[in-house]
Amino acid sequence: MPRLPVYSLRRRLLALLIGVVAVLWGLSAVVAFRTAHGEADELFDAQLEQVAETLLAIVATGDSPQVAEEMVEHQHDYPLPVAFQAWRRQESGEWSLLVRSSEMPEVPATRSPGFDEQEVDGVLWRFYAMDHGHSPYRVIVGQNHDARYRLAGEIALHLLAPILIGLPLIALAIWIVVGRALAPLDAVARAVGGLEPGCLQPVQVKGPLPAEIAPLVTSLDALVTRLAEALDNEKRFTADAAHELRTPLAALRIQAQVASRSDDEGGRRHALSQVLSGVERMTHLVEQLLTLARLDPDAALAGGMRADLVDVAGQVCSVLANHAIKRGQSLSLEAPDALEVAGNRWWLEVLLRNLVDNALRYTPDGGRVRVVVDQATHSLRVEDDGPGIVPDMQEQVLTRFARGQDQDAEGCGLGLSIVARIVRILGASLDFRPGLEREGGAGLAVTVRFPSPGAGPET
After folding, report:
1. CA proximity to 272, closest of 284, 262, 283
2. Where along the chain do its domains lie?
3. 117 or 454, which is more confident?
4. What's the CA gap between 126 and 145, in Å, rounded?
5. Environment class of residue 137 by beta-carbon count within 10 Å: exposed (0-12), middle (13-18) or buried (19+)?
6. Which top EC class is named for this enzyme in its record (predicted)?
């Protein structure tokens, strides 16, 4: 089976979360930068307006141009210097220059009031022109556009500094939070790693489990329980097989030695007959043991399988009819046309075959065995007129290798144990009642009631 690729959930979560945060942080930074840049431009425009108003007020009062230049050059409210010039309209309509700062390029006084941008000598400037009402004065102030842009960028970056510094801190916080969030997974991994093959216990995790992990732990517990049951079944199978095969094998060995050493033809034939009979009993025992080993609760109702109980009963009765004929027994079947029950067909065959075979083995020669499929009660009943089972032994005969009061009957004591286990797997119920009446005995009726369609397993 090819090994699936393995990746780190922690690293994937960190990469996704930090990546998303970084993208959102970057978009926020871009928006913040553009917003800060726009606000810086508005601030510089406000500076131009304020300087223009101040300069216009000074020149309109008639103060000397030197006073105006000194007042403007010593304004330190804003970090970006402002170039300026002031004009006066003569009676002839021409403009005469009153004052101009050293940084101010030569621009005509006839420009329209308000803001505009103009390239002068290869340098882009932003100008603001302002008149003093109906007076003959006009001022024009300006700033180097490149300097404005550079200073606006510096202001925006200064505002973005906390955002840029905060990103690593957020990444660290995400790393810590993801680590704490995945701590239950680490705890589950340690708990599963601590399980011992010889002592499979439910996964023990300290503290409450997140809702997302609880189903995983529940599934692991169910798996561990099934593994423990499988190991127990294997141990029981090994122990049972070793225990039950030891005596028959010893008996076969003795009979084989007798046959090989006997000079009497009749004695040899008798010994060989005993060997064949022992082989048949051992074959039956091994088949029953293998049947027990194959029982798998998960396969019983896999995929919601259903089978026709009437068809199964007919097939089993036809197979075992020869056994009944050899002993002069009557084997009959009473059933409707069809009755579907939940379960794997093979399990139903094993169940019914063991019930009928058990009845034939314990019913005397010439006795009666009847199989009844009851549609009204959704049940299967196997009746016989044999010795029956006393109430005190009804629970005991459901265990492995338990025998009824007739210890001389053929069998290995596994039939009803297999039946009880299949009944439990199918969620059905099992009970014992008196069977067919006969002189000197009450017989036995074993009834298996299956869950009705749509109903849950019986308890």
Report:
1. 262
2. 10-169, 210-294, 299-449
3. 117
4. 6
5. buried
6. transferase
- The conformational region for residue 91 under phi > 0 = left, psi -120 to 50 = alpha, else beta, is alpha
**pLDDT tens column, 154-166:** 777 777 777 777 7
Q: CB atoms < 10 A from the CB of 447, how many?
A: 19
Same fold, 10-169 and 210-294: no
Instruction: Tell whether domain 210-294 is in CATH 1.10.287.
Output: yes
Long-range contacts of 6-9 (CB under 8 A, 24+ apart): 9/182, 9/185
Domain 10-169 top-level CATH class: alpha beta
- CA torsion angle for 230, 225, 354, 378 (degrees, to 10)? -160
Amino acid at 166: G
For the whole model, what pTM was predicted?
0.49
pLDDT (average), residues 49-62:
80
Give the pLDDT of residue 304: 66
Report the C-alpha dihedral over residues 50, 52, 54, 55, rounded to 10 degrees.
160
Contact 33, 156 (CB under 8 A): yes
The amino acid that residue 138 corresponds to is R
Q: Strands 123-131, 340-342: parallel, antiparallel or unpaired by DSSP?
A: unpaired
162: amino acid identity, one letter = P
pLDDT digit string, tens, across residues 141-152: 888 888 777 877
Contact 450, 341 (CB under 8 A): yes
